[in-house]
Amino acid sequence: MRLYCYRRAGHGCLTADRRIRLAGLRRDRSMEGAKMNPAFANEACGRREGDARQSVAPDASARLDFDKGLLDQGSRAMRIGRWQRRCKQIVLNAPRFASARLADAQCVLAAVLFVAAGIAGVAGAAEPGPKGQSLNIVFLLADDLRFNTLGFMGDRIVQTPHLDRLASRGIVFRNAFVTTSICASSRASILAGQWMLRHGIEDFQTAFTPEAWRQTYPAVFREAGYRTGFIGKYGVGTTKAIAAQSEAFDYWRGLPGQAGRFFIDPNDPTRTHRTAQFGNEALEFIRSGDPGRPFCLSVSFNAPHARDHEPREFEPDPRDEPLYAGARIPLPPTATEAAFQRLPEFVKKSEGRRRWTWRFDEPEKAQRILRDYYRLISGIDREVGRIVAALEERGLADRTVIDFAALGGDAGY
User: Which domains, ranges and CATH numbers included, belong to the chain?
Assistant: First the structure.
């Protein structure tokens, strides 16, 4: 019952049992050594060492909240304050790893994804499979999803029943921080488990070097024998670099840039939405694989990110048009003229303010935009439900870990 996290070229975990408890972090001298405290407090989990092999379901309300987490970029050190709440039962299931490299990738996914994403995340932990059987990984990423526009995060209007169900059965990470708040840097941090200061990607053109790519979680899982797949918006590097990256996956349906418009073909009479397309491809990946071979599938939705300059910037799936008709969606408390006047001058004249005038400068326009935004979120939720159903249909749900996260997210509209 020991969990050690350390940093070599990437993050790493070594476990001595199928059960992993996270009960405390300690600060090392630099980001090179951010470690899980091996002398973790058993009482925090309400368990004794002798009870380690008993099956314990995660408390549905258990969550990790960091109080006043501080990111010190100058020293590249991470200081994490005390827990706001003691987690009585935080249990992550893990296989007996075939190699330390595979342990690296499991640790990246378990401990880094949500911090890099900059939004609350959900981890749906699977029940332990047969002895020695590796867990499957499904990582779902939304684009520009505001943190509280989900049912389980307190929004009483948006309809996200499938994500709410995942949250009730897993762990919700409510606090997350991002050091470089542009899409490409955050995506690179998710793939590499590293801050921008380490991976060096801070624009939309820079790609991973071959050596850096070998340290990413898809590469590590594939090297360990996993079947790997990527679907949707990739967003790291140029189109040429992304085409070369596709060879690193067994199943590749990645798209460069903004992943195109919300509809594959505006003239297509079926009106297939990108969100539905990505869901269809995820089902194809799940159903076409060998059930006995573990897999790592990443699905990166391009919703609910706006399509700038399109006539309808948040155009939803036609099936979702009836949703939220007539709904009045509350605006954030900072969406006022008084709040705007308190901002620094450079913010008042920024690109963000210019985009605000495209969408939110008139009350009815804002409501129309927000209804479409919510429709896109419900579209993602439907595909999450289909993916979970496909896993259950194949008998894979009990040995699959599902991670849902998002990056970006409008602040103050």
Answer: 98-308+372-407 (3.40.720.10)
